[in-house]
Model the fold of this input.
Amino acid sequence: MFPVDKFQDTRTPFYYYDTQLLRETLKTINEESGKHANYHVHYAVKANANQKILHIISQYGLGADCVSGGEIKAALEAGFPVDSIVYAGVGKSDWEIELGLQNDIACFNVESIAELEVINDLAQKHGKKARVAFRINPNIGAHTHANITTGLAENKFGIAMQDMDKVIDEAQTMANVEVIGLHFHIGSQILDMGDFKALCNRINDLQSQLAKRNVFVQNINVGGGLGVSYDNPDREPIPDFKDYFNTYATHLRLRNDQQLHFELGRSVVAQCGSLITRLLYVKQGSYKQFAIVDAGMTDLIRPALYQALHKIQNISSDEPNETYDVVGPICESSDVFAKAIDLNRCHRGDLLAIRSAGAYGEIMASGYNCRPLPEGYISEEFR
Ligand SMILES: *Cc1c(COP(=O)(O)O)cnc(C)c1O
Done:
């Protein structure tokens, strides 16, 4: 499945994106979300902002979910329509808010009263009316890694549920904001549909509470979070979008012509990407052997940051398996991709593929140790 011969002249490490899989994934998302009236999918740009990838995603008609001014610029450059751009983030700077206002983005997902006041002031200054949704913290735990749980009361994200009525009342006194929705996002890499069901139930309660006060909002935005199979990318290359959208269709009670928005990141791009790295040395330790590769945590930080386990394959060798710790060159003990895994016997110069690396991979690369950033190539570039 990898054009290994054509990789030989390319400087490693690099990201390789299988665009056929990306396109099939996008097609599935459109088919499955299209079965439900009023469902809109935005791509969470932070998962992968490579322009080549963004451009393909924009061609499939998804909107963009941004968390910074830089992402708004990247989304516009890639061709996402400005009226499909939503913008979240606990700490929006003035220039970022102004960028959103000047471009008339679809919605600001507001995370505090202090932010609402600044948006209202800046909108007034520019003679605009900002559409806003309130990001409510639903206090729902997700069965995922603690660092990627976002919907608990202890997390910094969103407005506390008990403050919802107050912020909506407050917004109604402001001339330059218009409340158009409620926004939620409980975390990432969620595979237990029960977590999304719990979110639906919470939203139903909040909507009933609002209905009693005769408040109706046009949009409900449930964020993203659908997980992927890191264990078995070949068996499950496309996440179960059918089950995901059906969970919302079954459990969320929308009112009249309410629109339901999603912000999917990882589930769109994770499986199409692999980090291709070259094996530098096989080193015999006192009781194990190390496969030392030229990619490190600067290229893919998920294992070091979230204890993530990515499947690794030696794509140059079909010799019998041996057991290795796969480690990078960075001067940190956490610079380890996997411990005690089986790989086809490794030799200096072999290429290894670190799979399911399309999301939160290339975009999180850093220059630590003065390392160059990895390039990202799409499959068309190796034809
Ligand atoms: C990160 C993020 C997403 C995307 O999450 P995934 O788990 O990648 O689907 C969606 N919405 C918001 C507000 C986010 O911060």
Q: What stands out?
A: Residues 193-212 form the longest helix (20 residues).
